[in-house]
């Protein structure tokens, strides 16, 4: 079957001849939407400005993709409820999948090492930046790590199937935005005193590799660098929206077409009509390891940090 995209606009709000939704001053930036923009400006435009709901799967088979996504959400919910004080035994009785059971048991072992510290689940913070709000929804912030009441450990639960490299994680906007927002807006968690960058750590706890999390220390130079970068990125996005003069010009598509195989807008952008296979996605993601891992293969089933239960 052939598709002719020329005579019909399947997503009217996305057509270049119509009016673009402006970037409202109430728009909230996050690690997720900034990552979208950094990878493909067009994807950001379609998803957040034009609000195009394009009915295409990110990967095939859809059933397995949905299963993995559901497991990631359910794992986050279990951890959240446990950190709120629900008994582990009661929560364990609700588990229905062997993968979820394995992750849960690994988490309980890890949680036992946090004794003496206060773990605050699902904390949301925001800060003013470049005329907008930059928000972060934390899986957990652990206060008092290593018996130091002035240490703040950001913990993010990840259910990646393959282990990402440290270099790849370091390059993610989440690794930069989360400590930045905590340093900017975390005073209420510190008795009203600002949190210094060197009091902050960012940790990715990997459900498939529970005894080897990736932890990133923070300091003043990193904070300044992240502040400048996030400010410049938000300013660029806002400027691009304003410069269009109300016309929905197409924002630049990524130069790396490999990303498009696993983007639900691929057909709208005329970069394919069939989703990439899930097993190929995961295999290539694993093969992308090394000093310069590719962010193309970021199918993170636990990417639910902006969902508050």
List descriptors.
alpha/beta, disordered N terminus, 36% helix, Lambda Exonuclease, Chain A, disordered C terminus, two-stranded parallel ribbon, 6-stranded mixed beta sheet, 309 residues
Write the layout of secondary structure elements.
Layout (H helix, E strand, L loop, with lengths): L27 E2 L1 H9 L1 H9 L9 E2 L1 H22 L4 H5 L5 H14 L6 E12 L2 E12 L8 E7 L7 H5 L2 H13 L14 E7 L7 E4 L2 H24 L32 E2 H10 L22
Parallel strand pairs: 1-4, 2-8, 5-6
Antiparallel strand pairs: 3-4, 4-5, 6-7
Helix pairs in contact: 1-2, 1-7, 3-5, 7-8
Provide structural commentary.
This protein has helices at 31-39, 41-49, 62-83, 88-92, 98-111, 166-170, 173-185, 220-243, 278-287; strands at 28-29, 59-60, 118-129, 132-143, 152-158, 200-206, 214-217, 276-277. β3 and β4 form a beta hairpin. α1 packs across α2 (41-49). The chain has nine helices and eight strands. Strands 1, 3, 4, 5, 6 and 7 form a six-stranded mixed β-sheet that branches. A two-stranded parallel ribbon has the order 2-8. The termini are far apart. The radius of gyration is 20 Å and the shape is globular. The protein has a single domain (39-297), classed as Lambda Exonuclease, Chain A, CATH 3.90.320. 36% of the residues lie in helices and 16% in strands. The chain is α/β, with parallel strands linked by helices.
